[in-house]
Amino acid sequence: MPYDDENPLFYGQANPLRASPSLADAWQFNTTLANNWLATQRQRSYDMGLADPATGLPTQAGVVNAAQQYGNALMMGSVAPEAPKFDWSPGGGTKTAQLGKTEITYGIDRTGDTGEVILVKTPAADRGQGEARRAMQRFLAHADTQGTTFFLNADPMDKGVSKSGLDRFYRSLGFVKNMGKRKDFRSTAEYVRQPPDAD
Q1: Burial status of residue 65 (CB atoms within 10 A of its CB: 0-12, 13-18, 19 or more)
Q2: Which of 8, 73, 96, 174 holds its CA 20 to 30 A away from the CA of 59?
Q3: CA-CA distance, 167 to 175, in Å (whole number)?
Q4: Integer Cα distance of 114 and 22 in angstroms
């Protein structure tokens, strides 16, 4: 029975939260409510053959059902895939981050203040769909939280990518030519991007 303002019962229990409850009353009420809900769900799993009442463990059908539900949720976009892990530790050679179908190879200098994007690689079959842009936007947004200035050279790595296309791509992400008044002498790389609060 769901909660109704006109009905002082909530899942068959008097609701102490309608008055001015003590912390202990609120805790007890919420704990009992959660336990009742869990017991109801557990019984439903037993009734559907998804869990073994003797052990409480999932049956093979329960495991398959859970995997199917998770897969459906992923396809529908209601469950986010695991967040990418970035390594911002200073030094240590090259690092990689897989974001969707794009792999970003990068390095962080020994002070941790600057980094260099070495390679942004998206499989040829997945290009032209915004994969690299989304990956770089996520990567740079996270880099901004670290206060890291990034450098890069816009050099095409295969025949399917043009230099002018790469220049436009990186400029659209906030990179500027590392020259003139904007020259950052910490690197000789072609492009530089400062975190937003560094201006």
Answers
A1: middle
A2: 73
A3: 9
A4: 53
> Longest C-alpha distance within the chain, in Å?
75
Q: Are residues 102 and 193 in the same domain?
A: yes
pLDDT digit string (tens) for 117-172?
A: 999 999 988 888 899 999 999 999 999 999 999 999 999 888 878 899 999 999 99
Question: Are residues 107 and 193 part of one domain?
Answer: yes
> Which residue segment(s) compose the domain that 17 sits in?
9-76
Asked if residue 2 belongs to a domain, the reply is no
Q: How far apart are CA 168 and CA 7, in angstroms?
A: 63
Q: What is the pTM of this model?
A: 0.58
Residue 93 and residue 106: Cα distance in Å, rounded? Answer: 9
Say how many domains are in the chain.
2
- Distance in angstroms (rounded) separating the CA atoms of residues 156 and 143: 23
